[in-house]
Amino acid sequence: MDNGQLDNLSFFQLFCKYGGIKRLFNTVESYVGLLASYIAVILLLFLQEEGLITLLNSYGVLLTSISAGIFGIVVSALAIITSLSNTKLVKVLIKHDIFYNLLFPFYFSAVSWGVNIIINFLIFILSYIDWNSIGDTGKFILVLLFIISFTCFFWVLLNTITLVGITLRYISYGNQLLDIIEYVEED
Fold first, then answer.
1. Which residues neighbour 138 within 8 Å (Cβ) at sequence distance 6 or greater?
2. CB 162 within 8 Å of CB 29
3. Burial letters for 29-41: b for 16+ Cβ neighbours within 10 Å, e otherwise?
4. What b/e sequence results for 84-102 when a residue is b if at least 16 CB atoms lie within 10 Å of its CB, and e otherwise?
5. The whole model's pTM is what?
6. What is the pLDDT confidence band of residue 187, given thresholds at 50, 70 and 90?
7. Measured between alpha carbons, how far is 36 from 130 in angstroms, rounded to an integer?
8. Which ranges does the record mark as transmembrane (predicted)?
């Protein structure tokens, strides 16, 4: 790999190489996230203010913890895959524009879990504010954060599950390359 190729690993450059917003949001994962959001809105309509405060407090703590744990798993998985990578395999994958499609979903997942952690922590903190003092606009913002968080959580969770398939594809490419190398070395 030359340094010019390594310079193209910023989030936004990989995002563009991956296919941008259209490829990212036109997925089953995003549709399930929207469905989850719709369900959340319907459920919120049936809650009294006290129940909503309790829900937001518990939700903020629970999802901050879950998101942080999954964030750690995603980063660890990427570290393991990177450490097991064969230099020849990486060069071949870069040459055929496959490497970035394998790498970006891990990057995206880690960034998304990080954003989810921040949103959920914010919900947790804001849920302790006196609801009488924040007014309707403050309540609306807090409920909107909850809906965004709920949608993102399901969307990112499903995107993270797809990393298993990406990992299996990466292993398959590595095995194919090893077979080719062994074949060439035999001749």
1. 129, 131
2. yes
3. bbeebeebbeebe
4. eeeeebbebbbeeeebbbb
5. 0.75
6. low
7. 28
8. 30-47, 59-84, 104-129, 141-168
